[in-house]
Amino acid sequence: MNGMPARLPTNLADRASVARPEPVAGFYVSVRTSARMAESALVLGPFPDRDTAHDHVPLVRAFVAARHRGGEWWRFSVARETAGPGKPLPAGTLNALIPAAGDGLAA
Predict the structure, then answer these.
(1) Taking a C-beta distance cutoff of 8 angstroms, is the pair 20, 40 a contact?
(2) Where are the alpha helices (DSSP H) in the chain?
(3) Of 18, 20, 71, 87, which sees the most CB atoms within 10 A?
């Protein structure tokens, strides 16, 4: 290597800060239809917090039970999803079908 080595900053304030976007997270009502399925579906959300998502579990359970025989036995829970850098959170698959949940959804 020729020449002088690069000068290291003597004070941390001299370092340029790297701005990283904060990850965006949301909470969803999720469902698993069978114990054999390795994945669950995000059916309603995103909600701003876990409690709001949890409050919507009975609404989703009733909606599914009215339309699918045996749907009341599916496993309903709350899941946290984090969006990738620069990507929005996905919409729940039942968002458009359950308009009563629209007020609690995150923007």
Answers:
(1) no
(2) 50-55, 57-67
(3) 71
